[in-house]
């Protein structure tokens, strides 16, 4: 079964509020079996507009990634990042 990857590209506009979001999101990632592969770090725009924070979280399946994203735990964390960032989140199926 292919793995599922949650990929986020983020520009943080309120670091304090975003830090509160990150605490809750980290706990939810662990609870739902996610493994952060990329979390911030150096980046380089090769094409298009880049965002300063990039995150890739691996889950055992697309369904497990969906469970995480739609969980009450993650949704509570997500509410804390409202107004704290500009972000795009996508769920991508991995290669078999």
TrEMBL record:
Residues 3-94 form the DUF1330 domain. InterPro entries: Dimeric_a/b-barrel, DUF1330. This is DUF1330 domain-containing protein.
């Amino acid at each position: 079964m292919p793995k599922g990857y949650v990929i986020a590209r983020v520009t943080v506009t309120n670091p304090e509020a975003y830090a509160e979001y990150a605490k809750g999101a980290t706990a939810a990632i662990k609870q739902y079996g996610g493994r952060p592969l990329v979390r911030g770090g150096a980046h380089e725009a090769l094409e298009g507009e880049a965002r300063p924070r990039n995150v890739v979280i691996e889950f055992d399946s697309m369904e497990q990634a969906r469970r995480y994203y739609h969980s009450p735990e993650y949704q509570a964390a997500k509410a804390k990042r409202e107004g704290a960032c500009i972000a795009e989140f996508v769920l991508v199926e991995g290669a078999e």
